[in-house]
Amino acid sequence: MRWTAALPGPSAATPVIVGERVFVTAAIEEAGVLLALCFDRKSGELLWEDEAGSGYQPGGEGSKTRRDPRSDYASPSPVSDGERVVFLFGNGDLVAYGLDGKRQWATNIQRAHGDFAFQWTFGASPTLWKGKLYLPVLQRDQPTDGSPVEKPIASFLLALDAQDGALVFKHERASPAHMESRESYATAIAHDAGAGKTELLVVGGDVLTSHDPESGAELWRWGTWNEGHREPWWRVVPSPVVGGDRVLVCAPKKAPVYALRLDGGESERLAWKSGGRDNPVSSDVPTPLFYDGRFFVLSDVERALSRVDPASGNVEWTIELPDRAPWEASPTGADGKVYCLSHAGLALVVDAKSGEILARAAMGDEDDESIRSSIAIAHGSLFLRTNDALYCIGG
Length: 395
Description:
single chain; mainly beta; Thrombin, subunit H; four-stranded antiparallel sheet; 1 helix
């Protein structure tokens, strides 16, 4: 243990390490405050903090830090391009800082583009890429508060200029899904396809779409895992994961995962899918990992971690996860190992080649629950957060 820093409140956001700084968020429910925090990477000293949340709440009532009991507004992870760091919160607050903590600009997505229509707290992390900040807002086409539908609510892909927050484009993203199946809590994934071709991959609404990062225009789409769009409750949480010439997409609630060819035509797009409902290769919440040429799928519904060949879909090993607490944080890979964290704060270190569990450590307090932040790795150290502490572990 190199150092431990106390945190003033919980968050599902993953710590972000930029040079000598570590950025995290926190929600303090009693005070109704959403915080952006920066710690020194080597010592754990708090360098700066700011009340980043504006307190915006549709209707002006209710908690300023959450809208449902399962999560809080501090769930999206911050992003940085090395010059600035941008924090997004689930109430739509989007705030950019210099690395020194000086605020550069701020906006609120709900105020600017209409109130969200999500069953649960909006939790997609923004994507900062080549000077633009991308955010998919894939929501249902009707209000969730029971008010009458005056007009359908659109889903859209948003791009802002990272320097000043100015709108670059707002592209409406249509979907054949209905009700909660239109909702996505996944992050847009930027992909360099080679030969000067780039694209943004966006999952939700029963389909995967590829978009031009300059205009937002749709390049291609694939789907669906919801035949006939009959299931109305299949929201999507895991982000798409690119590995080699494949992109992995997770259908929800014990449904299969799908590997798609990035260079294939519409009829040739699907490379393989995992087995049915009794197959451990499935994920409802965690985003899979691509590491050392393999996909690692952490199944929160089957309580298992599997190593999968991206070309064929063959499962090379599967291990059962210990601890009765849920496993919803996404796995991380480094140093030939896969690192996982349970809701109770049990940290697991798994050999990436053999699947052997090499180490486990109880990092949470005795009564901890809902620890959902992934373990971040940089400069030979692990950065792990629980509900009330940030740990740096390593040589």
